[in-house]
Amino acid sequence: xxxxxxxxxxxxxxxxxxxxxxxxxxxxxxxxxxxxxxxxxxxxxxxxxxxxxxxxxxxxxxxxxxxxxxxxxxxxxxxxxxxxxxxxxxxxxxxxxxxxxx
Length: 102
Known about the structure:
Elements lengths: L6 H32 L2 H38 L2 H6 L4 H4 L8
């Protein structure tokens, strides 16, 4: 992602995120179909009302994982080869400013 036009690379990076959202919606639709077929309308309403909460949690954790990937990429691009190979967690990045790493 460092060289050349970014549009295609950003699209290819965002494609798995969009696919996971589509799969999550299909899962919720299948959930509603099964519950609607075999139970009463109250159970179907309960499953339908939880879809937004589940979507919120899934998107929260996807965002956290993307943020962790960004921090690791920043760390590995700005650090020496030895430091970037030993870096496993982004937590040390939160406690150090960019000025202190130079």
